[in-house]
Amino acid sequence: MKKSILIIITIFISLNLKAQKGEQALVTVFYKFNHLKDSLNKSNMYKERMVLWIGKNASVYKSYDKIVNDSVKKTSVQDDGKGGYVVNTSNRKKTIENQIFKYPADRKLVVFEKLIKSYAINEDYPNMDWKIGSDTMSISGIKCQKAQTTFKGRNYTAWFAPDLPYNTGPWKLCDLPGLILQAYDDKHEVEFMFDGLKPAISTETINIPGIAIATSPADYKRLVELLRNDPNAFFAQNEVNGVRLVPSKPEVFKNAYKTENNPIELQP
Amino acid sequence: MSNVFSQDYIHGKVTDSLRNPIAFANVALMNNGVIMSYTQSNKNGLYTFKKTEENSLRYTHLQFTFVGFEKITLPIIEAQKQYNVVLKSTDHVLKEVIVKSRPAPIQKRGDTTNFDFAFYKAPQDRSVEDVLKKIPGIEVTPAGKISYNGKSITSFFIDGDNLLDDKYALGTKTIPSGMVDTLQVFENHQPIRALSKISPTDHVSLNIILNPKARIKITGLANLGLGTSEHAKEEVNLMSLKKGYKTLNLLKYNSDGYDLSKEITAQNFGEMNNELSRNLNYPLIDLNTIAIPYLNQNKYLFNRAFLSTTNQLFKLKEDIQLKFSGHYFKDSQRSNFSRLNQQIVLTDTIRFFEEQNQRYEPQKLEFRGDLTINKKSGYFNNTLVFKNERSNALALVFINAERVNQQLKTTPYEFYNEAKYIKAIPNNKAIELFSFISKSNNNQHLNLAPAVFNGYVLQQISMPQLFTNNSLALKVSNRNFFQEYKLSHTYDEKEINSAINGNYTDHLGNQLRWKYHRFQFNPSFNYITERIRVSLGLPLNYNNFSYRDDLYARNQSYDQFVFEPKIAVKINQGKENKITAQYQYKNNFADAATQYQGYILLNYRTLNAYNPDFLSQSNTHNFSLGYNFSKSIRLFSINVFGLYSIKENNSISQISFSDFNQTTLQLPLINYNRNLMFNGNTNKYIFDLKTTVKANFTLQQLYSNQVLNNVLLPYRTTVYTFGASTDTKFSDQVYLKYNASYVPTRSKSTAFNSGTQETKFINQAMELVILPVSSVVFKLNLEHQHYKNTNSDASNYLFLDANLSWKFAKAKQELRFSAINLSNVKSYRTNYLSAYTSASSTYQLLGRFFQVNYIFNF
Question: Complex ipTM, two decimals?
Fold first, then answer.
């Protein structure tokens, strides 16, 4: 009995250690993300530049605009007189806050979200049943092949590069025998368009921030719903002195507050 | 044709050149360079394709790819079903064309938290302060002082500029919330650029980022208000917050019980003086007015206040700033109260009843100028301040039905200059030079008619003071380890010149000349990682006191070395929990205000003097321990905090009562005060009830000693606080808040078998907000208070306020109707208990009034 407890603890500790170890990215892939958030307003496409860092066993997909924004803010925030701070706000843009971590070997998908504090939401690894087509296309000189599937209520067409043997892609898309360079749904309401590729630099590591609190999608959804319905109650939980807030951007609440009529995920 | 074979069509094993299996390698069946079907190798490097009828013939090649290895393509041979391959590793991780690459400095934003202002702003919020109150972690006291996670903020920046210094309440109470885009909270903030990376701080600062429209135009507001019983409110303000020039100006008048002086309060005044180790030049005379009641000011403050202020900031260059500010405040406050005092001494109880009608007329004038140069290579700041006050208090006292007129005039002034120079030197070092010099005086003049004590009708005091603090510090940083070595000299020179009835002799006068030197060497160390923060301070002081009073032919001098260590530890446990612990040893010495020998009349019934034969001092050991537990995903948190301090005093107050008169002297007698405090609070959101529930508990125990009429009496005072509150949002239109607290206070002398004195206080408050449409806000506040004391009857009060506001013309204009104290409570009684004093006070209240305000924004 004692021994089994010890084993469980050991496993627990080793799992913990594993989760915290970052992985050096090998490749950085840029995407242009287009999303028709409001299906009644077809002319207004939401656009954002995204980036996918790919390592040997893991990848993370996040907003490139956010990275640029943050670095711009960081530098321009330290620029002035006694106060020391002039903040350049002209370039500010609302950005996508979440990050999607995929660990294909462990069939693990973690969505990192910020809701005052940081959360690591363990989702089911997408079970994608791709139909491989015979069409090929060259995207920026990289040979790609077509594949199609239905995922979360949308029919996606993806173009993957067999010569880039990474089984990942933008957003939650994955599981093809090559990197997905382009993907879009049949109505072109959600698009991930290839926008460049380069070897990763040493600061680009794939690492779920250690501060993130592990949770399930259901529990996280409950928090977001509370935030939508009763933000004051939500924030009241952080009013107690001494509870340290994790630095975050509150735009995410606003996004959570607004309901989109045409989300990426039409079905769970 | 091919289905004569087993279910497995093509299978095999993928290994590297060392024969180690490769897991998750991509294996694809190809036809003319196009993938037709694919799979991945398993943990043992094995792969298998299930046969599919239609396609089987069309496969021409088998392709193996894996990250970090060269691609292998093999032709499929009809008869061969097993293909084992060895992949060759390659350094060319990415031989592919690099299509585009963008330079992007990637940096994490460590201690900055951004809050989107619009998100927190509700229709009824007018000023920045209204919104700040809702931001998680931020607390704003009624006086306007802001703290973040329990820590007072040091600076409030407007678009990065510190326009208002610590008079930031002017800004937070004046700037409209609509002008602000984002609030930034900087933790561990180091505004001095030369010190960023060299000297960590634990300071918290706020910065509001204005929206671009607000930056270019001149904005302002006019408020016209009319009320019944002359309770009016008027305001005009004008501001311009451009990049190179910022200004904020306002004129305010009100007579509805709102204290305007809190808008120009220097919020960090206490902290600044602690850092300077400075004893302030406070007046000695104290009219012994009553403690403020536990009520909103608009219930009890009879006032006519006027405030005018101007604040200007010029940016001469990107890193050079010049600032000027000026403030003028004038008020006329009226109060009527009565008090039944009981001093419980052994078996005796000394009782007296006093009534006071008071008129208090303060006037304050202050000017300030600042020059700041903040460069990476160095920093310079000079601040020059001039303050002048003039206040006049008239109090008519009825003491046990006898009538005494007290008139107190005080005319303090202060003039100070503060300069700081910091030079960054290579290898993460910096040198800091600091100088503070202050000249002040505090003249006081008390007139009594008729005399109460031995015909004493006039007390005059003059207290000129010169105070300086100069220091030199070396700061060194090395990764996570930060050191500072500081040498400082503090000098305090103060006089107390006093006379009663113009008479210096017979122990009625003072000509005290007080001089204090302190030389300090203060090494301090900080070790900071993500998980732990340890701070250690080891200041060693040499103190020299000398004082002289020619009236008493006294000339004395003392020397003393003191070591005052301080250690603080903070440990982050897991992702959400935190432990903090602190120990501090502190030595406090007398200053001139507690070392004078001749009697001073503090008010009509108190005479005070100190024993100059010894230097009164105390030392304190402080221990504290705290734990914060939080489970965000369950919206649940618990915090506990405990504090214990023990203070050793070398002197004790000897208080002699006769009737209502009180004479205080200091006796040399070592005695201890102990203070124990425990606080716990918890916070939970209940989904089913759409409600936040909070609960808190505090226990405070104080042990103190007093010599009353020649008997040493130890007292124990125990205060419990039990509190609970709920906050419910029924819908977007209806909100309800409720809170209740129960505070029993007990005081008992532990030396003999006397009865325990007890007061009980129960408070309940409810707030209902209804927004029938978004431009209309209706608010109702209901409060019930209950007091009960061992020796008096219970008292109960019910207060009711209502507010209705309506915004129109694109929210540029607003009409607001208020009804204050609808139940028209005109008299209010509270009980006070501490050690041997029990008092029951009755206040006259403003009573019911109505007000209409028209607000115009431009």
Answer: 0.77
Angle at B850 between CA B849 and CA B856, to 5 degrees: 140
Residue A229 contacts B, CB cutoff 8 Å: yes
Q: Is residue B297 within 8 angstroms of chain A, CB to CB?
A: no
What fold is seen in the domain A23-76+85-257? Answer: outer membrane lipoprotein receptor (LolB), chain A (2.50.20)
What is the C-alpha separation between B6 and B51, in angstroms, rounded? 9
B46 inside domain: yes
Question: Domain span at residue B62?
Answer: 8-87
What's the pLDDT band for B136 if we cut at 50, 70, 90?
Answer: low
Q: How many domains does chain B have?
A: 1
- Report CB contact under 8 Å: B102, A196: yes
Interface of B with A in 574-593 (CB under 8 A): 575-576, 578, 580
**CA gap B621, B606 in Å, rounded:** 32
How confident is the model at residue B55, as a pLDDT?
A: 53
| Residue B287 included in any domain | no
B687 close contact with A: CB closer than 8 A: yes
Give the C-alpha separation, B852 to B255, whole Å.
13
**B28-32, B108-112, B563-567, B580-584: the lowest-pLDDT one:** B108-112
A59, A67, A73, A82: best to mutate for the B interface, most B CBs within 10 A: A82
Separation of alpha carbons B128 and B157, rounded Å:
13
CATH classification of the domain holding B60: 2.60.40.1120
Give pLDDT tens digits for B540-571.
999 999 999 999 988 999 999 999 999 999 89
A39-80 per-position pLDDT tens digit: 887 778 888 889 999 988 899 999 988 877 666 554 444 433
Which pLDDT band, with edges at 50, 70 and 90, does B111 fall under? Answer: low
Q: Is there a domain that residue B13 lies in?
A: yes
For residue A245, pLDDT over 50 is answered with: no
Q: Residue B802 is encoded by which pair of tokens?
A: 């209502």
Among B106, B188, B189, which would you mutate to test the A interface (most chain A Cβ atoms within 10 Å of its Cβ)? B106
Cα B181 to Cα A97, B117, B227, B774: the distances in Å are 18, 6, 35, 21
Is any Cβ of chain A less than 8 angstroms from the Cβ of B340?
no
Asked whether residue B72 is assigned to any structural domain, the reply reads yes
